[in-house]
Amino acid sequence: MKHLPLFLSLFLLGLCLKAAAVKLADTALNQPAPNFILKDINGNTVSLADFKGKTLVVDFWATWCEPCRDSFPAVKMVVEKYKNDPTVKFLFIDTRETDANYQYLAKKFMADNQYPFNIVFDEKSDDGKMNATYRKYVMPGIPTKYFIDGNGFIKYKSVGYVPDQTKEQTAEDIEYLIEKVKAGK
């Protein structure tokens, strides 16, 4: 009985996240996406401009972020569904890392889980933290996904991860937003 208030709080939080996800899916943001130029997992330069004309899903995450990691099986399903669609691209920005070996940890995590994700690393901001791009996008936390159209406008944003959804449900939510962006909505 003593854990009942905690359980209720977590249950209500889950309901709020579901409601927020539905609301975000129905409201286009139409904001210019902040530019970035970052290094990928192989040391190559990647910028927002590289994705002009494409629907781009940008997923902010970190190796220490459990909800980020928990969302990845569903995200992998979506990445694999669109792997042969030249109009849809995915970019995973590893941000807010605190471990000095974050690049090694990210590479190992991707390899251990066989995630075919295009990983780039956020840069340090003026405060010395690895969050420069994260701060440009002004988000409440991670995981956060941005759905950007071919003209560089953020159409939708999805914050968090709903743990009581199946990976198939989560994948459907992501696919729904991708298709809306592709359709110009």
Q: What does it look like?
A:
By secondary structure, this protein is α+β, with helices and mostly antiparallel strands. Helices cover 38% and strands 21% of the residues. It contains five helices and eight strands; from the N terminus they run H-E-E-E-E-H-E-H-E-H-E-E-H. Strand 5 (88-94), helix 3 and strand 6 form a beta-alpha-beta unit. The protein is globular. The N and C termini lie far apart (47 Å). The model is unreliable at 1-26 (pLDDT under 50).
Brief overview, please?
The chain is an alpha+beta fold. It is built from five helices and eight strands, in the order H-E-E-E-E-H-E-H-E-H-E-E-H.
Keyphrases for this structure?
185 residues, alpha+beta, eight-stranded mixed beta sheet, 38% helix
Give the overall average pLDDT.
Answer: 86
Structural class: alpha+beta
User: Could you give the count of β-strands?
Assistant: 8
Profile the largest sheet.
8 strands, mixed
Pattern of helices and strands = HEEEEHEHEHEEH
Number of H- or I-type helical stretches: 5
From the spread of the alpha carbons, the general shape counts as globular
CA(first)-CA(last) distance: 47 Å
Give the strand order of the largest sheet, numbering strands 1, 2, ... along the chain: 1-8-7-4-5-6-2-3
Poorly predicted parts: 1-26
Beta content comes to 15-25%
In helices, the fraction of residues equals 25-40%
Whole-number radius of gyration? 16 Å
